[in-house]
Design a protein that fits this description.
Elements: H1 3-8, H2 11-17, E1 32-40, E2 45-53, E3 65-69, H3 84-93, E4 100-103, H4 120-134, E5 142-147, H5 149-160, E6 168-171, E7 193-198, H6 204-213, E8 220-224, H7 230-247
Parallel strand pairs: 3-4, 3-5, 5-6, 6-7, 7-8
Antiparallel strand pairs: 1-2, 2-4
Helix pairs in contact: 3-7
Length: 248
């Protein structure tokens, strides 16, 4: 994150997201970053569409995609400030096969359909691949990555459409033992899954229970010191990108 952007961010915003001066962002080039507007029939409105291509890979034609599902206090418009494009380039510099990052915004009920008619799941699974293909990306090779409410959304989408993603990485998914996600864990049996959560995270106990109840242990399970903050997530983003890239 640039010094100017950091200085202008309200303190309450930085605190809520764990965006402290110690939050790691790689010193790497951004590559091609775009924030566009697209019309979503599933959401009934225009949406922000964020895409990032690693530096040195032009417009990203033919590259697979990792789809981002954000948490409740974030939006696609903030992905650049979070440094995601820099993480992407650094992952490729470290040897990860190149891929594109892409993401939109959720709805009033997060990444679940709601009574207003907004259907983020349909937007992600049906409309987003078309938008990505129209921009030249290989939208048939795709994975999911989300944190907090977005991590919950990743699990729910994968349960509803088990073959849609080649792999899924969840950071501190906002789950509870009473959550419907626990009732359909059998559908994730064949999905390569990675789970990261801080041991001081408010969802830690539920996430541990989820890992224990999955029909097959996730390929990656990382429980490490940290809370429900951007600081913890940034510390593990490169690990998740390295793992997802190999499965695309």
């Amino acid at each position: 994150m640039g010094a100017t952007g950091w200085g202008l961010a309200p303190e309450r915003y930085k605190t809520r997201l764990g965006l402290t001066p110690d939050a790691y962002i790689p010193d790497a080039a951004e590559g091609r970053v775009r924030l566009e507007q697209v019309r979503s029939a599933a959401m009934g409105r225009r949406m922000d569409l964020f895409t990032a291509v690693p530096a040195g890979h032009g417009d990203g034609a033919g590259l697979p995609v990792v789809v981002i599902l954000h948490g409740s206090s974030a939006s696609a418009a903030g992905f650049r400030e979070f440094g995601f494009a820099r993480f992407l380039t650094r992952a490729v510099e470290r040897g990860a096969p190149p891929f594109v990052l892409a993401g939109t915004d959720d709805g009033p009920s997060g990444w679940l359909p709601d009574g207003s008619g907004a259907d983020p799941q349909r937007m992600v699974t049906q409309e987003l691949p078309r938008w990505l293909a129209a921009r030249g990306f290989d939208a048939d090779r795709r994975a999911l990555w989300g944190w907090s409410r977005g991590g919950h959304g990743v699990l729910r989408i994968c349960e509803a459409a088990p073959s849609w993603a080649r792999a899924a990485a969840v950071f501190s998914p906002a789950v509870a033992r009473s959550d419907e996600v626990f009732g359909r864990l059998d559908t994730l049996r064949d999905l390569p899954l990675g789970v990261w959560c801080g041991t001081e995270d408010m969802f830690y106990d539920a996430v541990r229970a989820l890992v224990d109840e999955l029909p097959r242990r996730p390929e990656v399970v990382t429980f490490a010191p940290g809370a429900h903050t951007r600081r913890f997530w940034n510390d593990h983003t490169l690990d998740a990108f390295d793992w997802l890239a190999k499965l695309l």
